[in-house]
Amino acid sequence: MKKKTILTLLLMLVIAAFFWTPLGHMGKIFLNKMVATSPSVIAKEEQQKVTDYDWVLKDENHTLFNFSKSKGKVIFINNWASWKVHCEAELQSIQKFYNDYKEKVDFYIITNEEKEVVDEFMTLKKFNFPVTYLIIDAKHAVNTEKVPSSYIIDKNGNIVIYEKGISNWDNDNVYEIVDQLIAE
Questions:
Q1: How many CB atoms are closer than 10 A to CB 148?
Q2: pLDDT tens digit sequence for 145-164
Q3: Is the peptide bond before 130 cis (omega within 30 degrees of 0)?
């Protein structure tokens, strides 16, 4: 075989591995993490406010609770789905963020998937943050349609950060912003 033919076959194998093997899945996660940027703070004059905290959700045991329990606290909300590779990549940074701030911030890491699917995903990926389940037809305090999307809300209900798409939540910039919000 010619050198060019061998190189073409190798390239085709790498591309096939990227799409149809676990190695490819890990590569996609890695690439998504590489393009994830630090979230940006919304300018004060452009920040919207959560005014209605009456939002019913389910905890990891599928027990109903009301979002109003977080009124007056710093809140992190993330909408995710286990079948989206970029969500999985983002959840790795959210797990680290949660580990560092679970005592200081109320976390709502929200999905609308079935509990069994989520439990299997959480075990497989070794995530231990609390999962919140969305009730589809209930009213929502924030937009939950875009997946992934994330919010950081200050103690006064101002949406300080709103990110559509994947972000890196485990970085000094985020920690500095959250520390400032906690101190207010």
A1: 21
A2: 888 999 999 999 999 999 99
A3: no
